[in-house]
Amino acid sequence: MRGPTRRAVIGGGVLAAAALLGGAAAAPPRRVVSLNPCLDTILVRVADRAQIAALSHYSREPTTSTIAAVAARLPMTYASGEEVVALRPDLVITGRNISAATRAALARLGITVVLFDVPETVAASLAQVMQVADLLGHPDRGRMLAAEIATALRRGAAPPGTRPVSALVFMPGGFASGPGTLMDAMMTRAGLANAAARYGLRRSATVPLEALVADPPELLLAGEARAGAPGGHQRVTGHPVLAHLAPAMLARQFPERLLFCGGPVLISTIAVLAAARDAALARRP
User: Fold this and answer.
1) Which contiguous run of DSSP H or E holds residue 45?
2) Confidence (pTM)
3) Which tens digit of pLDDT belongs to each residue from 115-146?
4) What backbone phi and psi angles, to 5 degrees, belong to 220?
5) Other CB atoms closer than 10 Å to residue 87's CB: what's the count?
6) How far apart are CA 276 and CA 254, in angstroms?
7) Taking Cα atoms as reference points, which of 212, 210, 201 lies closest to residue 249?
8) CA 129/CA 262 separation, integer angstroms
9) CB 70 within 8 A of CB 44
């Protein structure tokens, strides 16, 4: 893209993105800014380094980002309109939670903004990888990355005929990943049955300690305690009463950086889930 680009906001599929940028004949963007840490993880895998004008600041945090080492060597922003405009991007990719002020600033300058939904299925996450790669002009890299993710998912699947392991994944703040989330889909892929449903959860929400004690899952996955982090899950998973459940429930750490993003993060997510599943299966009579 040369000169001012026409403003557009989309959240759909690859074909819509191709139409937005003028079809197959359009030149790929030369300066791309990502304001979303999950999109950052895809961008660094499919873009030329010269195309990346900036990532989000979240991606530099090692406890919550899988690309902190890479992000530390690239420019970043705090998503303010002034910062983004100063970078003179011809494409901005972000989630739908972009601030109204930033959107307005970019719209006034005619900068193309592509909004992405949070994928709730593996298929949607793979489609997002392809969409970002297409927007950047590297569909071949998107296909390669999607194939890499699919291979990891196959390797992490439970052996045929294995009875699913009941499991619960706790997130910071005391919430458990509920039905209909990408984590729920990944648990199913790994041969884990999300116990959130049996506690009455229809979405990600808190699970009372009393419910865990009365009906513990076979596997409890939670992040490690760290200073300054939301500690709702620590009040539950760190409670002394859970030690008495050890014969019935295996507790394992689950890295916080794997909790929220899809795309290439799923490669590590499935590996951790599969290892925890195998440890739980080994405890069965």
Assistant:
1) helix 37-46
2) 0.87
3) 999 999 999 999 999 999 999 999 999 999 99
4) -120, 120
5) 15
6) 9
7) 212
8) 9
9) yes
Taken as a whole, the chain contains a residue count of 285
Residue corresponding to tokens 């690309």: 67
All structural domains of the chain, each given as residue ranges with its CATH number in brackets, are 14-152 (3.40.50.1980), 162-282 (3.40.50.1980)
CA end-to-end span of the chain: 62
Look-up: residue for tokens 């996450």?
125
| Token duo for residue 244 | 């008495």
Residue 243's CB: how many other CB atoms inside 10 A? 8
Q: How far apart are CA 69 and CA 65, in angstroms?
A: 9
Q: Is the dihedral of CA 153, 154, 158, 161 positive or negative?
A: positive
Quick one: tokens of 80? 């303010």
- What would the pLDDT profile of 46-68 be if each residue is shown by its tens digit? 999 999 999 999 999 999 999 99
User: What is residue 196's DSSP assignment?
Assistant: G
